[in-house]
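Table S2 (continued). Query chain:
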Amino acid sequence: MPRLSTRFAAASLALVAACDHPIAVVTPHAEVADLVFADSVSGAVLARTTDNRTWTGAPLQLCVDEVRTLLPQALDFRGVPVDLVSRRDLEIRGESADALVAWEPLRGRGKLFALAPGTTRVRFLVWHLTHADLVSPWLDVIVHPRAACPAAR
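Corresponding output:
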């Protein structure tokens, strides 16, 4: 009888150990190191991370009720662009520190909505199916009152 329980224990241990170390890679992760956001109209770079620690070009400035379409570009560790359009498993999500701005992710671009005047922060996530492959540092955003904005922007 002890021999049967020993075999059962050994077989159970082998199965449990096998589950802890999968052999196959199920989904490829994006090796993103930095993000760049360009204006969709002019193509000018508005903000860019450096080693995903700080932003250059900040703060973004918007007017209340303005919707700015931004073109995100993810860069790998060598500075080579990661194709966010053809990778259906990736998207750029945004989080706002409060309700002054909102981000709408779209394929190959995104819209930043200025909802109320004030100073806030947003950060962006390279979202891969169920989790973030990259979370950017917070980016400062200033939303100006409508009266303080130029007529054509």
